[in-house]
Amino acid sequence: MQEQFHPATFFAPEGAKYTLLPFRFMDFDGRRFLANDAGQYCFLDSPEFTTLLDGTLSRTSPAYMELKAKHFISDTALRVPLRLLATKIRTKRSFLDGFTRLHIFVVTLRCDHSCQYCQVSRVTADRSRYDMSRETADRGLDMVFRCPAREVKIEFQGGEPLLNFELIRYIVEEAERRNEEQGKEIEFVLTTNLALIDDEILGFLREHRVYVSTSLDGPAVIHNANRPRPDRDSHDLTIRGIDRVRKALGHDGVSALMTTTRLSLAHPEAIVNEYVEHGFDHIFLRPISPYGFAVRTRRHTGYELSSFLEFYRRALDYIIEVNRRGTVLTEIYAQILLTKILTPYATGYVDLQSPSGAVIGAVVYNYDGDAYASDESRMLAEMGDRSFRLGNLHQDSYSDIFGGPVARALVEASCVESLPGCADCAFQTYCGADPIENYATQGDVIGHRPTSHFCGRNMEIIKHLFRLYHGSDEFVQRLFWSWVERVPVSSLYPTIPD
Amino acid sequence: MSTAVPCAADGISALVGTFSSDEGFNREVALSVNTGLYGIDAVFQACYTFTDRCFFHFSHKGGEDVVLSMRRKREDGDVDDLIGEFVNELINQRVRIDLFRRTHLLREMIVAQAFTEADLLKPGMG
């Protein structure tokens, strides 16, 4: 019988007492940072790294035991570490199960706001032109129930989706009716600016357990500047809406997102305070998207990557201090990255996956029936570029849309394991690829990592989190674990896991 | 105009020169790199990581040596530092390629095992 594998001695340098297992490395603040495909990592001094590679690392050194425990080396039969690594990698990639979980219905393009950075809204009364029809919604639901995912999230976006609330009501009730046979776990989310919320809508949301996601960019002066309405009352309406939703759905029935504009950059503390003041236990520090009106208004709203990173660091420092004073507040992007760094688990965050979440994790049904791989693809289409249009609900089948050439090209272009600049990156397991942002900002789906804002942003934020976690402040370590475990700091065991 | 500056690294036989430009700073440097020592893949990968800072041009010098011209896109920092960082990156890339060669079969086995129901890791394999 033909031998399938090389003997163990093949993988070890001559005379070595251990076998190197696969890992990537990079220079990090004068040391070597090593990480494997399961996301386990360690720091070594340069001499230790050299002895590791040439097979002479002492068995009695602390580094040896750490490297062995984290599966960077093996001095026993390979079967055990390989099996453990395989299990951890399978866990890390568990997001690949359940194709496709998030289905976004753009029920209208109309909006009562004219936000500076918005990609898609139209201030218009033309319902027939910019509202999704029931027929289109039915075709979208056909796709929801055709997808193999057992856990499904149906999200309503716009424009301002409440301008077409009757269609939201129809989709929710129709999805529930169809699901009596299908038995999926369906979660509904309404993304709204809350300006149009009323008791009838709140009653429906409560009855059907529809969660609400809204935008809160900071104090009134920032929020109203970013999100103009004729009466400059967006902030008031949002805060009043949040209170009303909480009374109807409970405190956790509404979450909020912020977008960082140029105006935000000098006010990280005020923005964090706004979230604390209004009772949120989370904040998501998001950069502005490089799409749509954000591109057209770049002179007023845009900024350099370094400015965002300075804003992020200041805001995170302040969030740590807020927590130290006893207020529970999680920064969501840090929580996602720390979960990827400190645990073997997947996060389900589609923007940091390989392959990316486009199509695999999420799909967007536009008001006109066109299907897109992501919200960003739709934004590009509204700018006139329909490169990432997967198909149309009225003209194309499930396999045309989810398995067609556009879908396949996006998946292929978003595997970091084969992208130049990513393939050897030691942060690969924590990061992801965004071919649509690459296309929008650099002209092709592969992108150019040395000049990519996506790469630069994630590289620096990940490094910042490592520096904080491995710094001298033990409270930060406990806080980060509390974010990963989603419990208050006071609930953690006294000892932080190694 | 060219000015020779020292560059101590095995396989980088000499820095051919730095050249003044109209902008008044040394924008272009040239390195002679021994591809027999570093490997041409490592040279290309190191160049890639510097493409935000430099334009590159290769020419064959003869034997295993290539002349690598690096034209800086802007004046940011000392040219000696640029060369030092590039040489370090060249070493990193060479080590990465060596690590890949030594471990890629294991990685393929681990990933295959991770995504299959069958047991691919037979007893007695190591």
Give an overview in words:
The complex is a heterodimer of chains A (498) and B (126). Chain A is an alpha/beta fold and 498 residues long. Chain A folds into 2 domains: 22-92, no CATH class; 94-403, Aldolase class I (TIM Barrel, Alpha-Beta Barrel). Helices cover 42% and strands 14% of the residues of chain A. In chain A, strands 12-10-9-8-7-6-14-15-16 form a 9-stranded mixed beta sheet, sandwiched between helices. In chain A, helix 14 crosses helix 20. Chain A is globular and about 75 Å long. The mean pLDDT of chain A is 90. By secondary structure, chain B is α+β, with helices and mostly antiparallel strands. Chain B has a single domain (2-117), classed as Gyrase A, domain 2 (2-Layer Sandwich), CATH 3.30.1360. In chain B, 40% of the residues lie in helices and 25% in strands. Chain B has 3 helices and 4 strands, in the order E-E-H-H-E-E-H. Chain B has helices at residues 35-38, 40-49, 79-114; strands at 12-19, 28-34, 54-62, 65-72. A 4-stranded antiparallel beta sheet of chain B has the order 1-2-4-3. In chain B, helix 2 packs across helix 3 (79-114). At the A-B interface, strand 1, strand 2 and helix 3 of A face helix 2 and helix 3 of B.
What's the structural blueprint in terms of helices and strands?
The complex is a heterodimer of chains A (498) and B (126).
Chain A lengths: L18 E2 L3 E5 L2 E5 L5 E4 L1 H9 L7 H8 L3 E2 L4 H14 L9 E5 L20 H4 L3 H13 L4 E7 L7 H18 L2 E7 L7 H9 L2 E6 L4 H7 L7 H16 L4 E7 L7 H10 L4 E2 L1 E3 L4 H5 L1 H4 L3 H20 L5 E2 H11 L19 E4 L4 E3 L2 H8 L6 E4 L5 H6 L1 H8 L22 H8 L10 H17 L4 H12 L13
Parallel strand pairs in A: 6-7, 6-14, 7-8, 8-9, 9-10, 10-12, 11-13
Antiparallel strand pairs in A: 1-5, 2-3, 3-4, 14-15, 15-16
Helix pairs in contact in A: 5-6, 7-9, 10-13, 13-19, 14-20
Chain B lengths: L11 E8 L8 E7 H4 L1 H10 L4 E9 L2 E8 L6 H36 L12
Antiparallel strand pairs in B: 1-2, 2-4, 3-4
Helix pairs in contact in B: 2-3
